């Protein structure tokens, strides 16, 4: 494919996204895209805003076109990106000035409030924003809601789970690249973006890390790139993007730790890298995407042919259609039950020979991931010996002890057992995620009934979430039982009586 053909790849996928958005369906096609993930206020929207550039009235000749009545740029601040925002940047040398960024931001906020409520609710319905400018490269990014743990405004108590479920709908897809945004002044061990990236892409095949350039804590195959966003003071002072880009460039050129990497850092380089990687990714996935689309087209044409002589005003047809709807509803639930059970138990007739799925993935969590999380817990032997020594001395008090008191042993061991609570909780979270993914996989046969499929997924997923807290309570109860009584009459102990 020539250079001209390569340039047309991203606009081609954009047209498909717009078509699916217009009909409210995705045709079960896993479109290649880049999803931007990160914690609440991690700077995702600021990074994307840097791509777009200065307010439109300062751009020169520019045209902005917005899908779904949205006319705007990205609002910034705590909890602002509630629905997914599909940002399509189109390189266009000429055009027409349309509006300014303030109007754009207010329109997005109004659309967000209409979809999610006025107090930071969330919605899986994406907002499509298309920007034409001579100062951007062809690029499409999905700005996902920031991960948060504390409800804000009228958000439901389970907002963390809702956001996580929404993120998983995007990031678990094989054709979705991840732009993981982490602030450089935060502890990387607690980075929400890297946690989600490691979970869904442990080999780092789909992940690009937007962070400080000296970070090597994540094994990604698509490199990491540092950028400098505007501070809140800069935003309040209405510092324009050109000045911010100049300051970013100066920072990387003059900083002793970064100047040797200056040509591979900064917003322009990040945008260029994303453009190249998305283009190459689309090129690699396009053949399979085309084959699947053609297969679905043939299937739909065959189904349309069956209704060639259909008359909606025929009374017998109406009665038959109603009965068919009831049968589809009942059969849908029954089929979901059968497929889910087979997928979990491993007795399905359709065996996946390319990757683990369903019960096999849950089995791997219990027998590989969970032991790994336990082994990963840090134990400082020197510090542990010091704690044991202090415990023994404090128990003896003013007396000189002859034997090691059992209480010292129990105190130290109980503290170590208590550290297993976090890995156990994480194990439950991973299993819940797999169960939800399995449910969505089992409803694929209902693709021609999207509303029924969506409602069935919602009901079953809600049931799983309702049982999640009970499962965690049982796990914590089991650990508390172990903490309540130390059975030293066990073969693991030196004094075990054979």
From TrEMBL:
Pfam families: Dynamin_M, Dynamin_N. It is found in: Cytoplasm, Cytoskeleton. InterPro entries: Dynamin, Dynamin_GTPase, Dynamin_N, Dynamin_stalk, G_DYNAMIN_dom, P-loop_NTPase. Transmembrane segments: none annotated. Coiled coil: none annotated. Keywords: Cytoplasm, Cytoskeleton, GTP-binding, Nucleotide-binding. SMART domains: DYNc. GO terms for molecular function: GTP binding; GTPase activity; microtubule binding. Its main location: cytoplasm. One of its GO terms (cellular component) is microtubule. GO terms for biological process: receptor internalization; synaptic vesicle budding from presynaptic endocytic zone membrane. Residues 28-287 form the Dynamin-type G domain. PROSITE patterns: G_DYNAMIN_2 (PS51718). The keyword Plastid does not apply. This is Dynamin-type G domain-containing protein. It comes from Alosa alosa (allis shad).
């Amino acid at each position: 494919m020539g250079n001209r053909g390569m340039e047309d790849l991203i606009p081609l996928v954009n047209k498909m996204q717009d078509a699916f958005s217009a009909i409210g369906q995705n045709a079960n096609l896993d479109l290649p895209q880049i999803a931007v993930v990160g914690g609440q206020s991690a700077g995702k929207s600021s990074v994307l805003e840097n791509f777009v550039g200065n307010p439109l009235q300062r751009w020169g000749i520019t045209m902005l076109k917005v899908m779904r009545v949205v006319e705007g740029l990205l609002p910034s601040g705590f909890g602002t990106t509630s629905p997914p925002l599909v940002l399509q940047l189109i390189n266009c040398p000429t055009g027409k000035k349309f509006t300014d960024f303030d109007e754009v931001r207010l329109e997005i906020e109004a659309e967000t409030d209409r979809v999610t409520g006025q107090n930071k609710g969330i919605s899986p319905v994406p907002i499509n924003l298309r920007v034409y400018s001579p100062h951007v490269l062809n690029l499409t990014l999905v700005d996902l809601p920031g991960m948060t743990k504390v409800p804000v405004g009228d958000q439901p108590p389970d907002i963390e789970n809702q956001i996580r479920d929404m993120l998983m709908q995007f990031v678990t897809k094989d054709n979705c690249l991840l732009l993981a945004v982490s602030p450089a002044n935060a502890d990387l061990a607690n980075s929400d973006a890297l946690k989600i990236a490691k979970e869904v892409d442990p080999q780092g095949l789909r992940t690009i890390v937007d962070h400080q350039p000296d970070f090597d804590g994540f094994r990604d195959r698509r490199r990491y790139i540092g950028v400098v966003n505007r501070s809140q003071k800069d935003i309040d002072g209405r510092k324009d993007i050109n000045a911010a880009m100049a300051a970013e460039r100066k920072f990387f050129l003059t900083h002793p730790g970064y100047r040797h990497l200056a040509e591979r850092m900064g917003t322009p380089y990040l945008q260029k890298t994303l453009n190249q990687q998305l283009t190459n990714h689309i090129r690699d996935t396009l053949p399979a995407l085309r084959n699947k689309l053609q297969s679905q087209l043939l299937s739909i044409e065959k189904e349309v042919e069956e209704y060639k002589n259909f008359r909606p005003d025929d009374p017998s047809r109406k009665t038959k259609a109603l009965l068919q709807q009831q049968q589809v509803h009942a059969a849908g639930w029954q089929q979901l039950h059968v497929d889910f059970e087979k997928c979990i138990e491993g007795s399905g007739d359709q065996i996946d020979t390319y990757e683990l799925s369903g019960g096999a993935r849950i089995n791997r969590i219990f027998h590989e991931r969970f032991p790994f999380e336990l082994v990963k817990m840090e134990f400082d032997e020197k510090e542990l010996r010091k704690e044991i020594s202090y415990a023994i001395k404090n128990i003896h008090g003013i007396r000189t002890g002859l034997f090691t008191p059992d209480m010292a042993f129990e105190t130290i061991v109980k503290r170590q057992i208590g550290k297993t609570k976090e890995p156990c909780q994480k194990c439950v979270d991973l299993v819940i995620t797999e169960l939800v993914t399995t449910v969505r996989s089992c409803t694929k046969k209902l693709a021609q009934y999207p509303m029924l499929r969506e409602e069935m997924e919602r009901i079953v997923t809600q049931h799983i979430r309702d049982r999640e807290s009970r499962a965690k309570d049982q796990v914590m109860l089991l650990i508390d039982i172990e903490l309540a009584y130390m059975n030293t009459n066990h073969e693991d102990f030196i004094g075990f009586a054979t």
